[in-house]
Amino acid sequence: MAALAEVLAAVPDPRRVCGRRYRIGTLLALCLVAVLGGARSLARISRYATNAGDEVRA
């Protein structure tokens, strides 16, 4: 069975190359963790990502 990180990394990235700072799989995983933790808006997801520790962002 594929790990969640592998599945999220396989998602096609629709962004242009010049606009990418982070891999799409990493962003999706961080958003998923934020939503599972109760975030219900982009502002809360952003706040979660900003306040998350280095181990979560890694």
Characterise the protein shown here.
With 58 residues, the chain is an all-alpha fold. The chain has a domain at 21-58. Helix content is 57%, strand content 0%. It has helices spanning 4-9, 24-36, 42-51, 54-57. The longest helix has 13 residues, at 24-36. The mean pLDDT is 88.
Work out the helix count: 4
Which structural class should the secondary elements be placed in?
mainly alpha
- The radius of gyration over CA amounts to 12 Å
What is the tally of beta strands?
0
Q: How large a portion of the residues is in β-strands, by DSSP E?
A: under 5%
Average pLDDT level: 88
Silhouette: globular
Distance between the termini: 22 Å
Topology as a string of helices (H) and strands (E)? HHHH
Q: What fraction, in percent, of the residue positions are helical? A: 55-70%
Note poorly predicted spans: none
Largest sheet: none
Give a concise summary.
This protein has a domain at 21-58.
Topology:
Elements (H helix, E strand, L loop, with lengths): L3 H6 L14 H13 L5 H10 L2 H4 L1
Helix pairs in contact: 2-3
